[in-house]
Amino acid sequence: MSGITQKLLEIHHSGIFTQFSPEETVKTHEQLREVLNIEIDRLTDVEYYDLIELGFYLSLIMGKDKESRNCLQLLVDKFGDDLSPRIASLKATYLQATEGTQAAIEYLSKRPGDELQSLKKRISLNSSNRDKKYVELLLGLLDFTPLDVETWSELGETYYQLANVDKAIWCFQEVLLIQPFNYYVCARLGELYHALYQRDRSKKTNLELSIKYFARSVELCSNLVRGWSGLLTTTKESGNDTLHKLASDKLKLIEESQSATREDLNFIKEIKSLS
Amino acid sequence: MGVPDLIIDPALKYWVLVPISIALLVFALLRHTIAILTSPSPKLQPLAKFRELEGLKSAQVFKRNYWVLPKHDFINRQSLHVKRLTDGSLLAEDPNNEPQNPLDSNGMDGMMDMAKGQFGNMIAQTAMMSWVNFFFMGFVLMKLPFPLTLRFKQMLQNGVATDDLDVRWVSSISWYFIASMGLVSVMNVLFNDESMGEQLQQQMMLQGGQPPPMMLGAPKQDKVMLAEANDIRIISYESVLDGVEQRVVELYS
Asked: TM spans, by residue (chain B) (predicted)?
Protein backbone atom coordinates (compact mmCIF):
# COMPACT_ATOMS: atom_id res chain seq x y z
CA MET A 1 0.00 0.00 0.00
CA SER A 2 1.45 3.35 -0.96
CA GLY A 3 1.96 6.15 1.52
CA ILE A 4 -0.78 8.25 0.05
CA THR A 5 -3.36 5.49 0.38
CA GLN A 6 -2.30 5.07 3.97
CA LYS A 7 -2.73 8.78 4.55
CA LEU A 8 -6.19 8.83 3.01
CA LEU A 9 -7.27 5.89 5.13
CA GLU A 10 -6.02 7.67 8.24
CA ILE A 11 -7.98 10.76 7.25
CA HIS A 12 -11.05 8.61 6.88
CA HIS A 13 -10.66 6.75 10.17
CA SER A 14 -9.85 9.80 12.25
CA GLY A 15 -12.68 11.81 10.69
CA ILE A 16 -10.37 14.81 10.48
CA PHE A 17 -11.75 15.75 7.05
CA THR A 18 -14.68 17.40 8.79
CA GLN A 19 -12.26 20.04 10.08
CA PHE A 20 -10.52 20.66 6.74
CA SER A 21 -10.30 24.05 5.11
CA PRO A 22 -11.83 24.22 1.60
CA GLU A 23 -8.39 24.01 -0.05
CA GLU A 24 -7.48 20.93 1.95
CA THR A 25 -10.77 19.28 1.08
CA VAL A 26 -10.27 19.88 -2.64
CA LYS A 27 -6.70 18.61 -2.49
CA THR A 28 -7.66 15.47 -0.58
CA HIS A 29 -10.48 14.85 -3.02
CA GLU A 30 -8.07 15.06 -5.95
CA GLN A 31 -5.66 12.67 -4.26
CA LEU A 32 -8.49 10.29 -3.57
CA ARG A 33 -9.56 10.23 -7.21
CA GLU A 34 -6.01 9.59 -8.28
CA VAL A 35 -5.58 6.74 -5.84
CA LEU A 36 -8.84 5.18 -6.92
CA ASN A 37 -7.73 5.42 -10.56
CA ILE A 38 -4.20 4.14 -10.21
CA GLU A 39 -4.15 1.83 -7.24
CA ILE A 40 -7.49 0.16 -7.56
CA ASP A 41 -5.95 -3.26 -8.22
CA ARG A 42 -3.74 -3.09 -5.20
CA LEU A 43 -6.45 -2.23 -2.68
CA THR A 44 -8.19 -4.85 -0.61
CA ASP A 45 -11.96 -4.78 -0.48
CA VAL A 46 -12.06 -3.15 2.92
CA GLU A 47 -9.66 -0.41 1.90
CA TYR A 48 -11.53 0.21 -1.34
CA TYR A 49 -14.88 0.68 0.34
CA ASP A 50 -13.36 2.80 3.09
CA LEU A 51 -12.00 5.10 0.41
CA ILE A 52 -15.37 5.19 -1.33
CA GLU A 53 -16.95 6.23 1.96
CA LEU A 54 -14.36 8.99 2.30
CA GLY A 55 -15.16 10.02 -1.26
CA PHE A 56 -18.82 10.20 -0.33
CA TYR A 57 -18.17 12.61 2.52
CA LEU A 58 -15.66 14.74 0.62
CA SER A 59 -17.85 15.21 -2.42
CA LEU A 60 -20.80 15.99 -0.19
CA ILE A 61 -18.76 18.65 1.60
CA MET A 62 -17.76 20.07 -1.78
CA GLY A 63 -21.37 20.19 -2.92
CA LYS A 64 -21.00 17.53 -5.60
CA ASP A 65 -24.28 15.81 -4.90
CA LYS A 66 -24.18 13.60 -7.94
CA GLU A 67 -20.79 12.18 -7.17
CA SER A 68 -21.66 11.47 -3.55
CA ARG A 69 -24.85 9.84 -4.75
CA ASN A 70 -22.71 7.52 -6.88
CA CYS A 71 -20.44 6.66 -3.96
CA LEU A 72 -23.46 5.93 -1.80
CA GLN A 73 -24.93 3.74 -4.50
CA LEU A 74 -21.70 1.74 -4.72
CA LEU A 75 -21.81 1.12 -0.98
CA VAL A 76 -25.49 0.22 -0.99
CA ASP A 77 -24.92 -2.21 -3.85
CA LYS A 78 -22.21 -3.94 -1.89
CA PHE A 79 -23.60 -3.98 1.63
CA GLY A 80 -27.33 -3.82 1.13
CA ASP A 81 -29.79 -1.20 2.15
CA ASP A 82 -31.61 -2.29 5.24
CA LEU A 83 -29.08 -4.21 7.31
CA SER A 84 -26.21 -1.90 8.01
CA PRO A 85 -26.58 1.00 10.46
CA ARG A 86 -23.47 2.51 8.94
CA ILE A 87 -25.12 2.76 5.55
CA ALA A 88 -28.17 4.21 7.26
CA SER A 89 -26.19 7.06 8.72
CA LEU A 90 -24.56 7.71 5.35
CA LYS A 91 -27.99 7.91 3.79
CA ALA A 92 -29.17 10.22 6.52
CA THR A 93 -26.18 12.46 5.92
CA TYR A 94 -27.02 12.57 2.23
CA LEU A 95 -30.63 13.41 2.93
CA GLN A 96 -29.59 16.09 5.39
CA ALA A 97 -27.39 17.71 2.77
CA THR A 98 -29.82 17.49 -0.11
CA GLU A 99 -33.32 17.60 1.32
CA GLY A 100 -32.83 19.10 4.73
CA THR A 101 -32.61 17.97 8.32
CA GLN A 102 -36.26 17.05 8.67
CA ALA A 103 -36.09 14.46 5.89
CA ALA A 104 -33.04 12.89 7.50
CA ILE A 105 -34.75 12.70 10.88
CA GLU A 106 -37.79 11.10 9.29
CA TYR A 107 -35.65 8.54 7.50
CA LEU A 108 -33.77 7.64 10.67
CA SER A 109 -36.90 7.30 12.77
CA LYS A 110 -37.92 4.43 10.50
CA ARG A 111 -34.80 2.46 11.40
CA PRO A 112 -35.08 -0.36 13.97
CA GLY A 113 -34.96 0.87 17.53
CA ASP A 114 -31.93 -1.09 18.65
CA GLU A 115 -29.54 0.61 16.24
CA LEU A 116 -27.58 2.92 18.50
CA GLN A 117 -25.69 4.42 15.60
CA SER A 118 -28.89 5.57 13.93
CA LEU A 119 -30.14 6.90 17.25
CA LYS A 120 -26.96 8.87 17.78
CA LYS A 121 -27.15 10.30 14.28
CA ARG A 122 -30.76 11.29 14.86
CA ILE A 123 -29.89 13.04 18.09
CA SER A 124 -26.99 14.84 16.47
CA LEU A 125 -29.38 16.25 13.88
CA ASN A 126 -31.11 18.09 16.72
CA SER A 127 -27.92 19.84 17.75
CA SER A 128 -28.91 23.16 16.20
CA ASN A 129 -30.86 24.13 19.29
CA ARG A 130 -29.08 23.01 22.39
CA ASP A 131 -31.81 23.06 24.95
CA LYS A 132 -33.11 20.90 27.77
CA LYS A 133 -34.70 18.46 25.37
CA TYR A 134 -31.39 17.94 23.62
CA VAL A 135 -29.72 17.29 26.99
CA GLU A 136 -32.32 14.66 27.77
CA LEU A 137 -31.73 12.95 24.45
CA LEU A 138 -28.00 12.88 25.05
CA LEU A 139 -28.46 11.52 28.55
CA GLY A 140 -30.70 8.80 27.19
CA LEU A 141 -28.02 7.82 24.71
CA LEU A 142 -25.31 7.87 27.38
CA ASP A 143 -27.30 5.48 29.52
CA PHE A 144 -26.55 2.89 26.84
CA THR A 145 -23.10 4.03 25.79
CA PRO A 146 -21.31 5.37 28.86
CA LEU A 147 -17.95 5.02 27.11
CA ASP A 148 -18.72 7.25 24.14
CA VAL A 149 -16.41 10.25 24.52
CA GLU A 150 -18.01 12.12 21.64
CA THR A 151 -21.39 12.16 23.32
CA TRP A 152 -19.92 13.03 26.71
CA SER A 153 -18.09 16.06 25.38
CA GLU A 154 -21.10 17.18 23.37
CA LEU A 155 -23.17 16.98 26.55
CA GLY A 156 -20.47 18.88 28.42
CA GLU A 157 -20.47 21.70 25.90
CA THR A 158 -24.25 21.82 25.96
CA TYR A 159 -24.30 22.08 29.74
CA TYR A 160 -21.70 24.83 29.52
CA GLN A 161 -23.86 26.78 27.09
CA LEU A 162 -26.79 26.34 29.42
CA ALA A 163 -24.56 27.83 32.14
CA ASN A 164 -24.51 24.58 34.08
CA VAL A 165 -20.77 24.50 34.67
CA ASP A 166 -20.81 21.90 37.46
CA LYS A 167 -22.42 19.34 35.22
CA ALA A 168 -20.18 20.27 32.30
CA ILE A 169 -17.19 19.51 34.52
CA TRP A 170 -18.68 16.13 35.39
CA CYS A 171 -19.03 15.30 31.69
CA PHE A 172 -15.49 16.24 30.81
CA GLN A 173 -14.22 14.27 33.77
CA GLU A 174 -15.95 11.27 32.25
CA VAL A 175 -14.06 11.91 29.02
CA LEU A 176 -10.83 12.15 30.98
CA LEU A 177 -11.55 8.89 32.76
CA ILE A 178 -11.86 7.16 29.41
CA GLN A 179 -8.87 8.96 27.86
CA PRO A 180 -6.66 9.80 30.85
CA PHE A 181 -3.90 11.37 28.75
CA ASN A 182 -6.07 13.67 26.66
CA TYR A 183 -4.44 17.06 27.33
CA TYR A 184 -7.10 19.06 25.51
CA VAL A 185 -9.67 17.76 27.95
CA CYS A 186 -7.34 18.63 30.84
CA ALA A 187 -7.11 22.19 29.54
CA ARG A 188 -10.88 22.31 29.03
CA LEU A 189 -11.40 21.23 32.64
CA GLY A 190 -9.00 23.98 33.72
CA GLU A 191 -11.11 26.51 31.83
CA LEU A 192 -14.33 25.20 33.34
CA TYR A 193 -13.01 25.31 36.91
CA HIS A 194 -11.82 28.83 36.21
CA ALA A 195 -15.30 29.75 35.02
CA LEU A 196 -16.68 28.38 38.28
CA TYR A 197 -14.18 30.43 40.24
CA GLN A 198 -15.08 33.61 38.38
CA ARG A 199 -18.69 33.09 39.28
CA ASP A 200 -17.93 32.72 42.98
CA ARG A 201 -14.57 34.14 43.96
CA SER A 202 -14.80 32.95 47.55
CA LYS A 203 -14.20 29.34 46.51
CA LYS A 204 -10.44 29.17 46.17
CA THR A 205 -10.47 25.41 45.63
CA ASN A 206 -11.91 25.90 42.16
CA LEU A 207 -9.03 28.18 41.24
CA GLU A 208 -6.58 25.65 42.62
CA LEU A 209 -8.14 22.84 40.62
CA SER A 210 -8.12 25.03 37.54
CA ILE A 211 -4.36 25.59 37.95
CA LYS A 212 -3.83 21.90 38.59
CA TYR A 213 -5.64 20.86 35.43
CA PHE A 214 -3.85 23.45 33.31
CA ALA A 215 -0.55 22.27 34.78
CA ARG A 216 -1.46 18.68 34.03
CA SER A 217 -2.25 19.59 30.42
CA VAL A 218 1.15 21.21 29.85
CA GLU A 219 2.83 18.37 31.68
CA LEU A 220 1.43 16.08 29.00
CA CYS A 221 2.07 18.41 26.05
CA SER A 222 4.95 20.84 26.28
CA ASN A 223 3.77 23.38 23.71
CA LEU A 224 0.06 23.47 24.33
CA VAL A 225 -0.76 27.17 23.97
CA ARG A 226 -4.18 26.66 25.49
CA GLY A 227 -2.70 25.14 28.65
CA TRP A 228 0.10 27.66 29.06
CA SER A 229 -2.14 30.68 28.54
CA GLY A 230 -4.64 29.27 31.01
CA LEU A 231 -1.83 28.82 33.45
CA LEU A 232 -0.73 32.40 32.81
CA THR A 233 -4.16 33.80 33.65
CA THR A 234 -4.92 31.61 36.63
CA THR A 235 -1.54 31.91 38.33
CA LYS A 236 -1.79 35.67 38.06
CA GLU A 237 -5.02 35.53 40.02
CA SER A 238 -3.67 33.13 42.61
CA GLY A 239 -0.31 34.85 42.92
CA ASN A 240 1.86 31.84 42.13
CA ASP A 241 4.84 33.74 40.73
CA THR A 242 7.10 30.82 39.76
CA LEU A 243 4.46 29.21 37.60
CA HIS A 244 3.34 32.56 36.21
CA LYS A 245 6.85 33.38 35.08
CA LEU A 246 7.32 29.90 33.65
CA ALA A 247 4.10 30.20 31.67
CA SER A 248 4.98 33.59 30.21
CA ASP A 249 8.50 32.37 29.33
CA LYS A 250 7.09 29.32 27.64
CA LEU A 251 4.57 31.34 25.64
CA LYS A 252 7.32 33.70 24.54
CA LEU A 253 9.42 30.72 23.48
CA ILE A 254 6.56 29.23 21.49
CA GLU A 255 5.96 32.58 19.82
CA GLU A 256 9.62 33.01 18.91
CA SER A 257 10.07 29.51 17.57
CA GLN A 258 6.67 29.68 15.80
CA SER A 259 5.96 26.15 17.01
CA ALA A 260 2.20 26.42 16.98
CA THR A 261 -0.63 26.98 14.53
CA ARG A 262 -1.30 30.49 13.26
CA GLU A 263 -4.47 30.72 15.30
CA ASP A 264 -2.60 29.87 18.47
CA LEU A 265 0.13 32.40 17.70
CA ASN A 266 -2.47 35.13 17.21
CA PHE A 267 -3.99 34.05 20.46
CA ILE A 268 -0.68 34.50 22.27
CA LYS A 269 -0.46 38.05 20.94
CA GLU A 270 -3.95 38.75 22.19
CA ILE A 271 -3.27 37.41 25.65
CA LYS A 272 -0.08 39.43 25.86
CA SER A 273 -1.88 42.66 25.04
CA LEU A 274 -4.37 41.88 27.81
CA SER A 275 -1.82 41.43 30.55
CA MET B 1 23.82 -44.89 -9.04
CA GLY B 2 21.79 -47.55 -10.67
CA VAL B 3 18.51 -47.74 -12.40
CA PRO B 4 15.70 -46.42 -10.18
CA ASP B 5 13.69 -49.24 -8.70
CA LEU B 6 10.51 -48.08 -10.39
CA ILE B 7 9.93 -46.11 -13.53
CA ILE B 8 6.80 -44.05 -13.55
CA ASP B 9 4.87 -43.39 -16.69
CA PRO B 10 5.21 -39.62 -17.41
CA ALA B 11 1.60 -39.56 -18.56
CA LEU B 12 0.62 -39.96 -14.90
CA LYS B 13 1.81 -36.40 -14.38
CA TYR B 14 -0.68 -35.01 -16.86
CA TRP B 15 -3.57 -37.32 -16.15
CA VAL B 16 -3.36 -37.57 -12.38
CA LEU B 17 -1.24 -34.91 -10.72
CA VAL B 18 -2.56 -31.96 -12.67
CA PRO B 19 -6.26 -32.94 -12.62
CA ILE B 20 -6.21 -33.53 -8.87
CA SER B 21 -4.53 -30.19 -8.24
CA ILE B 22 -6.94 -28.30 -10.47
CA ALA B 23 -9.97 -30.06 -9.04
CA LEU B 24 -8.80 -29.27 -5.56
CA LEU B 25 -8.35 -25.60 -6.36
CA VAL B 26 -11.70 -25.26 -8.08
CA PHE B 27 -13.36 -27.09 -5.26
CA ALA B 28 -11.80 -24.83 -2.63
CA LEU B 29 -12.94 -21.79 -4.58
CA LEU B 30 -16.44 -23.15 -4.79
CA ARG B 31 -16.53 -23.89 -1.08
CA HIS B 32 -15.28 -20.43 -0.30
CA THR B 33 -17.98 -18.82 -2.42
CA ILE B 34 -20.68 -20.98 -0.89
CA ALA B 35 -19.44 -20.14 2.57
CA ILE B 36 -19.69 -16.43 1.78
CA LEU B 37 -23.14 -16.75 0.29
CA THR B 38 -24.56 -18.79 3.14
CA SER B 39 -22.84 -17.02 6.03
CA PRO B 40 -25.43 -15.46 8.30
CA SER B 41 -25.46 -11.68 8.50
CA PRO B 42 -24.11 -10.36 11.80
CA LYS B 43 -26.80 -9.62 14.33
CA LEU B 44 -26.91 -6.61 16.61
CA GLN B 45 -26.55 -7.30 20.28
CA PRO B 46 -29.77 -6.82 22.23
CA LEU B 47 -29.81 -3.33 23.75
CA ALA B 48 -30.24 -4.41 27.37
CA LYS B 49 -27.29 -6.75 27.15
CA PHE B 50 -25.20 -4.08 25.47
CA ARG B 51 -26.08 -1.61 28.22
CA GLU B 52 -25.12 -4.13 30.89
CA LEU B 53 -21.72 -4.77 29.34
CA GLU B 54 -20.98 -1.10 28.72
CA GLY B 55 -22.01 -0.21 32.26
CA LEU B 56 -19.67 -2.83 33.63
CA LYS B 57 -16.90 -1.60 31.36
CA SER B 58 -17.37 1.97 32.52
CA ALA B 59 -16.99 0.82 36.12
CA GLN B 60 -13.78 -0.91 35.12
CA VAL B 61 -12.55 2.23 33.39
CA PHE B 62 -13.20 4.14 36.60
CA LYS B 63 -11.29 1.55 38.57
CA ARG B 64 -8.34 1.90 36.24
CA ASN B 65 -8.23 5.66 35.70
CA TYR B 66 -9.68 7.15 38.89
CA TRP B 67 -6.43 9.05 39.48
CA VAL B 68 -7.37 11.83 37.06
CA LEU B 69 -10.11 13.08 39.39
CA PRO B 70 -10.06 15.49 42.32
CA LYS B 71 -10.92 13.89 45.63
CA HIS B 72 -14.45 15.24 45.87
CA ASP B 73 -15.49 13.93 42.46
CA PHE B 74 -13.72 10.65 43.09
CA ILE B 75 -15.82 9.99 46.18
CA ASN B 76 -19.04 10.93 44.38
CA ARG B 77 -18.30 8.61 41.53
CA GLN B 78 -17.13 5.82 43.80
CA SER B 79 -20.45 5.70 45.61
CA LEU B 80 -22.36 6.11 42.36
CA HIS B 81 -20.62 3.17 40.73
CA VAL B 82 -21.00 0.98 43.82
CA LYS B 83 -24.69 1.79 43.94
CA ARG B 84 -25.26 1.08 40.26
CA LEU B 85 -23.36 -2.19 40.44
CA THR B 86 -25.08 -3.50 43.54
CA ASP B 87 -28.72 -2.49 43.06
CA GLY B 88 -29.04 -4.43 39.82
CA SER B 89 -30.24 -1.53 37.69
CA LEU B 90 -27.66 -2.40 35.07
CA LEU B 91 -28.59 -6.05 34.77
CA ALA B 92 -30.11 -7.13 31.48
CA GLU B 93 -32.14 -9.93 33.01
CA ASP B 94 -33.36 -10.89 36.43
CA PRO B 95 -30.54 -12.79 38.21
CA ASN B 96 -33.09 -15.04 39.92
CA ASN B 97 -34.20 -16.45 36.59
CA GLU B 98 -33.01 -19.86 35.71
CA PRO B 99 -30.00 -19.64 33.44
CA GLN B 100 -31.16 -19.99 29.88
CA ASN B 101 -30.93 -23.46 28.51
CA PRO B 102 -28.26 -23.20 25.82
CA LEU B 103 -29.98 -25.89 23.80
CA ASP B 104 -33.04 -23.87 22.92
CA SER B 105 -33.84 -20.80 20.80
CA ASN B 106 -31.00 -18.30 20.63
CA GLY B 107 -28.23 -20.44 22.00
CA MET B 108 -29.09 -23.07 19.45
CA ASP B 109 -28.83 -20.69 16.51
CA GLY B 110 -25.11 -20.23 16.69
CA MET B 111 -24.52 -23.90 17.26
CA MET B 112 -26.75 -24.83 14.35
CA ASP B 113 -24.77 -22.53 12.07
CA MET B 114 -21.52 -24.01 13.22
CA ALA B 115 -22.80 -27.56 12.91
CA LYS B 116 -24.07 -26.80 9.42
CA GLY B 117 -20.69 -25.43 8.46
CA GLN B 118 -18.85 -28.42 9.88
CA PHE B 119 -21.22 -30.88 8.34
CA GLY B 120 -20.94 -29.23 4.95
CA ASN B 121 -17.19 -29.29 5.18
CA MET B 122 -17.15 -32.91 6.12
CA ILE B 123 -19.37 -33.91 3.24
CA ALA B 124 -17.29 -31.90 0.83
CA GLN B 125 -14.11 -33.46 2.11
CA THR B 126 -15.51 -36.97 1.89
CA ALA B 127 -16.88 -36.44 -1.59
CA MET B 128 -13.57 -35.12 -2.79
CA MET B 129 -11.66 -37.98 -1.25
CA SER B 130 -13.90 -40.65 -2.66
CA TRP B 131 -13.64 -38.97 -6.04
CA VAL B 132 -9.86 -39.23 -5.89
CA ASN B 133 -10.05 -42.77 -4.59
CA PHE B 134 -12.51 -43.86 -7.21
CA PHE B 135 -10.65 -42.58 -10.23
CA PHE B 136 -7.03 -42.72 -9.21
CA MET B 137 -6.62 -45.78 -7.05
CA GLY B 138 -4.39 -48.77 -7.46
CA PHE B 139 -1.10 -47.33 -8.67
CA VAL B 140 1.77 -45.36 -7.24
CA LEU B 141 2.10 -41.79 -8.40
CA MET B 142 5.37 -40.42 -7.15
CA LYS B 143 8.27 -40.84 -4.79
CA LEU B 144 8.49 -38.62 -1.74
CA PRO B 145 11.88 -36.99 -1.21
CA PHE B 146 12.05 -38.11 2.42
CA PRO B 147 11.89 -41.52 4.11
CA LEU B 148 8.84 -42.64 6.06
CA THR B 149 8.21 -45.41 8.55
CA LEU B 150 6.31 -48.52 7.64
CA ARG B 151 3.23 -47.42 9.50
CA PHE B 152 2.37 -44.98 6.76
CA LYS B 153 2.19 -47.78 4.25
CA GLN B 154 -1.43 -48.54 4.81
CA MET B 155 -2.49 -44.97 4.41
CA LEU B 156 -0.20 -43.79 1.62
CA GLN B 157 -0.17 -46.88 -0.49
CA ASN B 158 -3.84 -47.50 -0.28
CA GLY B 159 -4.83 -49.99 -2.92
CA VAL B 160 -1.32 -50.93 -4.01
CA ALA B 161 -0.89 -54.58 -3.24
CA THR B 162 2.88 -54.89 -3.03
CA ASP B 163 4.05 -55.76 0.45
CA ASP B 164 7.70 -54.80 0.24
CA LEU B 165 7.56 -51.62 -1.85
CA ASP B 166 9.35 -48.71 -0.17
CA VAL B 167 6.90 -46.44 1.67
CA ARG B 168 8.31 -43.45 -0.16
CA TRP B 169 6.35 -44.49 -3.18
CA VAL B 170 2.91 -43.09 -2.60
CA SER B 171 -0.44 -43.25 -4.33
CA SER B 172 -2.61 -40.40 -5.55
CA ILE B 173 -4.58 -40.03 -2.33
CA SER B 174 -1.44 -38.80 -0.59
CA TRP B 175 -0.92 -36.18 -3.26
CA TYR B 176 -4.43 -35.07 -2.47
CA PHE B 177 -3.51 -34.73 1.21
CA ILE B 178 -0.32 -32.85 0.55
CA ALA B 179 -1.98 -30.49 -1.89
CA SER B 180 -4.85 -29.71 0.47
CA MET B 181 -2.36 -28.83 3.22
CA GLY B 182 -0.62 -26.35 0.97
CA LEU B 183 -3.81 -24.93 -0.44
CA VAL B 184 -3.93 -21.93 1.88
CA SER B 185 -0.72 -20.42 0.61
CA VAL B 186 -1.60 -21.16 -2.99
CA MET B 187 -4.91 -19.36 -2.60
CA ASN B 188 -3.13 -16.43 -1.01
CA VAL B 189 -0.79 -16.11 -3.96
CA LEU B 190 -3.47 -16.60 -6.59
CA PHE B 191 -6.02 -14.19 -5.23
CA ASN B 192 -3.76 -11.80 -3.41
CA ASP B 193 -6.26 -11.65 -0.62
CA GLU B 194 -5.21 -12.69 2.83
CA SER B 195 -8.71 -13.14 4.13
CA MET B 196 -9.45 -15.97 1.75
CA GLY B 197 -6.56 -18.11 2.93
CA GLU B 198 -7.37 -17.38 6.53
CA GLN B 199 -10.89 -18.53 6.10
CA LEU B 200 -9.73 -21.75 4.54
CA GLN B 201 -7.36 -22.25 7.42
CA GLN B 202 -10.23 -21.74 9.80
CA GLN B 203 -12.21 -24.38 8.02
CA MET B 204 -9.31 -26.76 8.34
CA MET B 205 -8.99 -26.03 12.02
CA LEU B 206 -12.65 -26.76 12.49
CA GLN B 207 -12.17 -30.08 10.82
CA GLY B 208 -9.70 -30.90 13.55
CA GLY B 209 -12.77 -31.83 15.54
CA GLN B 210 -12.53 -29.30 18.36
CA PRO B 211 -15.88 -28.92 20.01
CA PRO B 212 -17.20 -25.36 19.70
CA PRO B 213 -16.74 -23.31 22.88
CA MET B 214 -19.87 -23.40 24.99
CA MET B 215 -21.26 -20.62 27.11
CA LEU B 216 -22.35 -22.91 29.89
CA GLY B 217 -19.77 -22.11 32.52
CA ALA B 218 -19.88 -18.31 32.23
CA PRO B 219 -20.19 -16.60 35.63
CA LYS B 220 -23.43 -14.78 36.31
CA GLN B 221 -23.35 -11.05 35.63
CA ASP B 222 -24.63 -10.03 39.06
CA LYS B 223 -21.76 -11.86 40.73
CA VAL B 224 -19.27 -10.18 38.41
CA MET B 225 -20.78 -6.82 39.26
CA LEU B 226 -20.64 -7.45 42.99
CA ALA B 227 -16.97 -8.33 42.71
CA GLU B 228 -16.37 -5.17 40.71
CA ALA B 229 -18.22 -3.11 43.33
CA ASN B 230 -16.03 -4.55 46.05
CA ASP B 231 -12.94 -3.67 44.07
CA ILE B 232 -14.15 -0.12 43.67
CA ARG B 233 -15.00 0.19 47.37
CA ILE B 234 -11.44 -0.53 48.44
CA ILE B 235 -9.59 1.76 46.02
CA SER B 236 -7.23 3.92 48.02
CA TYR B 237 -7.40 7.37 46.52
CA GLU B 238 -4.42 9.07 45.00
CA SER B 239 -4.36 11.67 42.31
CA VAL B 240 -2.12 12.79 39.51
CA LEU B 241 -3.15 16.33 40.37
CA ASP B 242 -1.25 16.22 43.68
CA GLY B 243 1.92 18.23 43.29
CA VAL B 244 1.45 18.69 39.56
CA GLU B 245 2.53 22.35 39.75
CA GLN B 246 5.80 21.34 41.37
CA ARG B 247 6.37 18.69 38.71
CA VAL B 248 5.74 21.17 35.91
CA VAL B 249 8.17 23.68 37.39
CA GLU B 250 10.83 21.01 37.72
CA LEU B 251 10.14 19.68 34.23
CA TYR B 252 10.48 22.96 32.38
CA SER B 253 13.04 25.00 34.29
From this structure: 12-30, 122-142, 173-191
